[in-house]
Known about the structure:
The structure is a single chain. The protein has helices at residues 12-17, 21-29, 47-60, 147-164, 178-182, 216-222, 232-241, 254-260, 271-278, 291-295, 300-314; strands spanning 32-34, 40-42, 44-45, 69-72, 78-81, 84-86, 89-93, 108-115, 120-124, 127-128, 130-131, 169-174, 192-193, 195-196, 204-205, 227-229, 247-249, 265-269, 318-323, 329-332. The chain is α/β, with parallel strands linked by helices and 334 residues long. It has a five-stranded mixed β-sheet. A five-stranded mixed β-sheet has the order 17-16-18-19-20, with helices on both faces. The chain has a two-stranded antiparallel sheet with strand order 1-2.
Amino acid sequence: MRDPVTGFTYPEDWVQRCTDTGKLLLVTEGLAVLTSTGAVLLRGFTTGTTAAAAAKAAVLSLKAPAGPVFLTLPCGLTVSVPAEGREGTGTGKKFSGDYPSDVTAGIEIRAEASRQPGSMTITFGDGVGRFVRDTPRYKKGTPAVSSPALSCIVRSVQEALDETGETGIMVRISIPEGAATGRKTLNPKVGVEGGISILGTTGLVEPWDDHLTESTAGRIAAAENPVLTTGRIGLRFSRLLFPDREVILIGGKLKEALDAGPGPVTLCGLPALILRHISPQILDGTGFLTVEELSQSDRFPAMVTDILAGFKKVRPAVTVVLINREGKVIGESP
């Protein structure tokens, strides 16, 4: 069984542990993820997907009441998204799946559509955050709308135009509770004010929290047997491998993170950062320029076994699990 969003092939024993065929179907459709225990966690829809659904419903409703709507997400999946449209007004409420701490869960996104023959215009109104200073990618005053999300909105509106036969449209997207909700997000810290951002790299919300809400060291100290991971790939697969444990993203601060753990911890992720921390001279004399190249060689299994055995003596409370980019375990502490 393969995840159509990430391309990850689920191990057969994971599949066998899941007895709910309905949930397994959602996994094959990309709307949920399967974990190592057999539990299935639902993905949600991003603000970008919700805005696109509201916009499409608004345009379709110029001809007849609409909803739900089919969208092609940035990841390539075509899915049905809850939304309603009547007389040119479309609404959608953000579904967050099993994402545990999404402050935007359930927020309503509204789209107003009016005929504009010959062209398409998408604008953003109240409740959509705007940048309050210039950034490398955005000018001051620009709506906080990511490129994948905007592309999804434009594509969805064009699909609605094709279905209705309209030759052009103006759509204005707003978020009635956006300003209040935006203050609860990280937006003010990154220079976005007045609302929430409309985002979505894949169009789907992963069912776990990858944003730190307090200091990393504090989270590690308070957690029981946490899983520490170095990057986004490690975060994704750590949540699949260890669904019943708290997974904490530590980036490159391995020493600080390991020092913060008062008890057993698991360090899980791609090999480069982890092995360079454990054995800074790992590449010396190997002829390889990167740890990733080394990890694909015949020499790697024996080398990593010796390195992890030595590290276990230095850090007996730390279990190391190394994975490749496909999520396969390629090294593990004795």
